[in-house]
Design goal:
Radius of gyration of chain A: 29 Å
Oligomer: heterodimer
Largest sheet of chain B: 22 strands, antiparallel, barrel
Helix content of chain B: under 10%
CATH class of the largest domain in chain B: Mainly Beta
CATH architecture of the largest domain in chain B: Beta Barrel
Structural class of chain A: alpha+beta
Order of helices and strands of chain A: HHEEEEEEEEEEEEEEEHEEEHE
Number of strands of chain B: 47
CATH superfamily of the largest domain in chain B: TonB-dependent receptor, beta-barrel domain
Strand content of chain B: over 45%
CATH topology of the largest domain in chain B: Maltoporin, Chain A
Largest interface: A-B, 85 and 82 residues
Number of domains of chain B: 2
Number of helices of chain A: 4
Number of domains of chain A: 3
Chain lengths: ~300, ~775
């Protein structure tokens, strides 16, 4: 007999108690069963949303005077699909330098379109990729920033030993900013001997330039920042790094590169923290400057200095 | 032929009448509960045809009359028997009107279909009804009851925060006897801090906010506590599954009364016991909260009243561990112990002097403080053969306000003028703390402190004028000034009420409200500590403009209302994408600023407050967007709690003196949330030099078509509550049985992707299936 009907019998609780005691052990099992069902049935696997939405094309390309032009074109895949991107090979790609069509065409080889051409710092580049089958056109543009040089990189070692008995030294980096425009920078801190660079993950920078801009707490592989706090001046950065020796890569990056990387690290960190995409922070969207598609077309110039001056 | 004498007498009589009418007289006094002698705010005093007023929060009323012979007042209040008072006319009459509590078996008589203009635009839930509205825990909750009203939304299921007309919880000003409270939730929002047993009256202003309320953009929840029974001592004890409560009130000598309530959560008791038994005393874990409300009132004389108020509420989460490690059954000599404590809550105190200067002028003077604190302490000690390691860390955030304010009320001829001045010293601590570590070979420590002081001056003027019993003009100006930043805000408030007929009331209002303090939370983290931050030079005060048009109709005790509104918000702030609670970046660098919000809606409410059957049915249609330059790449996006449709129904039936039951049903369109719709290959270069096969990193990214691009399934839920009462020789007892989510609808709380058996699946999570609750209350 349901408990509610007992209660409605004249509202006399004494009588109800007698009936409930008669329920006895069976009633207790029912309560436990209800509780168990309640606890266990709170998550449910459901079909993904918007799974039948058409795919989008993705164009990825980083320009730099220091390496060839490489263009990756692929498609989005359903969110639950196993990672198996198909690299598109039926595209015609044109590149424009300062609105002049380059006579060279990237050739497809092994998942990407490759062009051995050195872009020029300060020049404007536009890419047009046309799909031969459906005439879908992807376009994007960017300006290659001017190269910035590291004035000096020195080391002070040892600096201190932490409670894990790790000895830290200090690298001091100096470079000058061109104050006329907004500049965006990226630095990579590394170990390395004999010109073999390996990224370091154990370093500390407390300069406001970094803490103001950089998503420092995401422990990214690189640090991004702007010249907002030192426009037109020399920047001196002290970097506490584990171990002896090392190198710094300093990149002057375009606005598109800066936005892409900034959102990318937050996006990847957001996913990595949340093994089950659990609710620790809000999802982060990826930045894209590709028209009619997704991806990134961005540029950078870099300089590298080893602690021994090479 | 006109009789000149008769004409002369008539003219003289008219003249005398006019003179007398224009002079009139003044009637003022206090409405009280006949048994406890508690002042009764919100009592309706009707006089003449379609004219009347309402008692204020001190139970005080004051109006000018034009009676020539006999004065007839009809005084009514929900839960009390209506009383008619007759008196001979005089220039000044002072009344103390005692209303007898009425157990509502029959209909409470309300003569005439009369609407009180001053109360229009507020949402009031009678306290007696609050006790009966079913709730999640069985514990009556003020904010959960308001969540059942149109225009007031809940956030995530189970939380007590309220989102009023598109605003966020920090945009609501919560006042406890005039003292602001910053944190109004326990258990991450599961329950509010307001102990219903201590409350006398509550009003929620969501349309027209009188100018005396400033500093928040969306609403004001004005909670008035009881003063205490002046006739006899009363006590109440309640024990339930979630919490236990003790309440006491009574006289303290001839001229004083007291009110005291203490409430405590019971969850930690079984948790502690379980952990102690399962870990042989090595572990202890628990969560608990408590609330204390205390008030002492001294009635110095007919014109002076002094009140001291104290409120303390705290949540506590703790974990204690002791471990001893062993290798192959032998002690390794390593022992450790740790203690983690997280406390957060409010402390508010105030001293208030209420003084009637003369028949027309009253004064309220208050001095007090309110503090919100949030402290985490973590310490450990580890002993081994190599020595002892000790560590300690403490992080603290909070706000403290010290304030003094004075309010004046002047009752004119068909008007009420209220003005006030105040000064506040705000002290914000977004984060401060210390850390120390000591081992046999190493010592380190550090401290950090981030404290911001913001003095504030504020003033307001509020004016209400009644024209011929049909038109009421409400106007006011609220001003806040922060001298350290030279921020000055002037917030006009204008409203017009027009009584078309005695049953129909048209209303409109236009208001502006500034807000100088902001609450930062990540929407995904329900246990994240609240961080209140002040406006700075870079982060300007937020403000909102709201336009409201409405009409109300009252017939046979039912009140029907329709409101159309629009609110535009400016200078909003939000965390940057990807921010979470583990970030240590200074908060000023972690927020997006200069955001905008636009919300608009339509609300319909049918409510019955009197009689054996009470309740309401409400519907709202609304749209709520946000826009930030660096969120969603500058495009507008739906607010997280943008629910298009809501239907809410509450029904309370007092079957007899011994039994009553209640039911509530709620339907709401699904909340928007951000869900990935595609997978995207993302590339990154991180290494020196160029090598196609080593330096290019290709990883899985996820494509979101926009912020809050996906609508959850609709939310709906049915609750029941049953009260069984009995008057026994020495006490009055009540059993309460509640059923939350009676048909166990698994309303979605979140959607996410999860790896299961190597496959990625899409999961919907719900938290609250059917939940029964019981409580037992004794009153004596």
């Amino acid at each position: 007999m349901p408990i509610t009907s007992l209660l409605f019998q004249g509202g006399n609780l004494k009588n109800s108690k007698r009936h409930l005691c008669g329920f006895g052990f069976s009633g207790l099992k029912l309560v436990v069963l209800v509780l168990l069902i309640s606890v266990l049935s709170c998550t449910k696997i459901i079909p993904p949303i918007n799974d039948d939405e058409p795919h989008q094309y993705v164009l990825n390309c980083f320009l730099s005077p220091d390496h060839p032009i490489e263009v990756f074109i692929s498609r989005t895949i359903p969110v639950l699909a196993k990672t198996n991107y198909s690299w598109e090979d039926e595209w015609d790609i044109k590149l424009y330098e300062n609105d002049v069509l380059l006579p060279f065409v990237p050739e497809y080889a092994d998942s990407s379109y490759l062009l051995y051409y050195s872009v020029q710092p300060g020049s404007h580049y536009r890419i047009e990729a046309l799909n031969r089958n459906n005439n879908h056109l992807l376009t994007a543009e960017d300006v290659v920033p001017k190269r910035v040089s590291i004035t000096e990189l020195t080391e002070l070692y040892p600096l201190y030993t932490d409670r894990h008995d790790t000895t830290f030294g200090q690298l001091t980096l100096r470079f000058n900013d061109d104050g006329n425009v907004s500049n965006y920078y990226e630095i990579v801190v590394g170990h390395g001997y004999n010109q073999r660079f390996k990224t370091s993950h154990t370093y500390k920078i407390t300069h406001p330039v970094i803490t103001h801009d950089s998503e420092y707490d995401l422990y990214p592989l690189t640090l991004l920042f702007t010249n907002e706090l030192f426009r037109g001046e020399e920047l001196v950065l002290d970097i506490a790094k584990d171990g002896y020796g090392g190198a710094i890569i300093l990149k002057n990056v375009s606005y598109n590169y800066f936005m892409y990387k900034r959102y990318l690290y937050a996006h990847l960190e957001n996913q990595n923290r949340k093994k089950d995409f659990a609710e620790i922070s809000d999802p982060v969207m990826l930045y894209s400057n590709v028209n009619n598609g997704l991806g990134i077309f961005a540029s950078h110039c870099q300089d590298i200095k080893w602690v021994d001056g090479n | 032929m006109i009789n000149k004498s008769a004409l002369l007498c008539f003219l003289v009589q008219m003249l005398v009448s006019i003179c007398f009418a224009s002079e009139g007289g003044r009637i003022h006094g206090i409405v009280r509960d006949a048994s406890s002698r508690e002042p009764l705010p919100g009592a309706t005093i009707q006089f003449g045809a379609g004219a009347g007023t309402v008692s204020d929060h001190n139970g005080y009323f004051n109006f000018r009359h034009h009676f020539s012979d006999t004065i007839l007042l009809k005084v009514s209040h929900i839960g009390y028997e209506t009383r008619t008072v007759k008196s001979s006319c005089a220039r000044e009459l002072v009344f103390e009107i005692l209303l007898t509590p009425g157990i509502q078996i029959g209909e409470v008589e309300v003569s005439g279909n009369y609407l009180n203009s001053r109360e229009i635009g507020t949402l009031e839930i009678p306290i007696e009804q609050l006790y009966k509205i079913p709730s999640l825990s069985g514990e009556p909750d003020l904010l959960k009851a308001y969540q059942m009203m149109p225009g007031v939304q809940m956030g995530n299921e189970g939380t007590a925060g309220i989102y009023v007309r598109g605003g966020t919880p920090d945009q609501n000003l919560f006042l406890l006897d005039g003292v602001p409270l910053y944190n109004v939730s326990h258990m991450g929002g599961f329950l509010s801090v307001f102990d219903v047993s201590a409350i006398r009256k509550v009003n929620l202003y969501k349309g027209y906010m009188p100018a005396r309320y400033g500093g928040r953009m969306s609403s004001v929840v004005d909670v008035r506590l009881k003063d205490g029974n002046a006739s006899e001592r009363k006590q109440e004890f309640m024990i339930g599954i979630l919490a236990s409560r003790y309440y006491s009130e009574g006289p303290l000598g001839e001229k004083n009364t007291y009110m005291l309530s203490v409430r405590r959560c019971n969850i930690d008791l079984p948790l502690r016991l379980y952990y102690l038994m399962s870990s042989s005393g090595q572990e202890s874990f628990g969560y608990t909260f408590m609330d204390f409300n205390g008030k002492v009132t001294r009635y110095i004389d007919q014109k002076n009243k002094l009140t001291f108020l104290a409120y303390y509420g705290r949540d506590k989460l703790f974990l204690r561990e002791r471990t001893s490690s062993s290798i192959y059954g032998y002690s390794s000599g390593l022992k450790s112990k740790s203690l983690y404590k997280h406390n957060w809550g409010n402390l508010a105190t105030a001293l208030n002097w209420n003084h009637i200067l003369n028949a027309s002028l009253g004064l309220d003077l208050m001095v007090g403080s309110t503090t919100y604190f949030n402290t985490v302490r973590d310490k450990f000690e580890s002993k081994s053969n190599d020595g002892t390691d000790k560590g300690y860390a403490e992080i603290h955030s909070g706000i403290t306000d010290l304030f003094v304010k004075a309010d004046f009320n002047y009752y004119g001829n068909q008007s009420l003028l209220t003005a006030g001045l105040g000064a506040v010293l705000h002290s914000y601590t977004p984060a401060s703390g210390s850390y120390s570590y000591k081992s046999s070979s190493h010592v380190e420590s550090s401290e950090f402190a981030d404290q911001i002081y913001r003095p504030e001056l504020n003033a307001y003027i509020d004016y209400e004028h009644y024209f011929g019993g049909r038109i009421t003009l409400l106007s006011g100006l609220n001003s806040i000034y922060w001298p350290t930043l030279d921020y000055l805000s002037l917030d006009p408030r204008v409203g017009v009420h027009y009584r078309l007929f005695s049953e129909w009331l048209l209303r409109s209002s236009l208001t502006r409200a500034h807000q100088y303090v902001h609450l930062l939370t990540t929407s995904a983290d329900f246990l994240s500590p609240d961080v209140w931050v002040p406006s700075t030079r870079e982060i300007k005060p937020s403000y909102a403009d709201q336009l409201n048009l409405g009409v109300s109709y009252m017939v046979k005790g039912y009140e029907l209302s329709l409101d159309i509104w629009e609110k535009r918000m400016h200078n909003l702030i939000a965390y940057k994408p990807g921010h979470n609670v583990t970030n240590t970046q200074p908060w000023e660098f972690a927020v997006e600023k200069e955001g905008k919000g636009t919300a608009r809606g339509l609300e319909i409410l049918a409510q019955k407050k009197h009689g054996r059957n009470t309740g309401w049915l409400g519907y709202s249609l609304s749209k709520n967007d946000r826009q930030f330059e660096n969120l969603n790449f500058g495009r507008p996006f739906p607010f997280k709690y943008d629910r298009r449709h809501e239907i809410k129904a509450v029904f309370v039936r007092n079957v007899s003196e011994r039994f009553s039951f209640s039911g509530s049903w709620m339907f709401a369109s699904g909340n928007p949330t951000t869900i990935a719709t595609k997978k995207v290959p993302v590339i990154d270069y991180t290494h020196f030099g160029y090598n196609r096969y080593e330096d290019i990193d290709i990883r899985d990214g996820h494509y979101y078509s926009g912020v809050n691009n996906f609508r959850m399934e609709p939310y709906h839920r049915l609750d029941f509550g049953f009260s069984f009462n009995k008057q026994l020789p020495k006490y009055y007892r009540t059993y309460y049985l509640g059923l939350y989510n009676a048909y166990s609808r698994l309303n979605p709380n979140s959607y996410f992707f999860k790896t299961k058996n190597g496959e990625v699946v899409f999961v919907r999570r719900a938290y609250f299936p059917i939940i029964p609750s019981v409580s037992y209350t004794l009153r004596f």
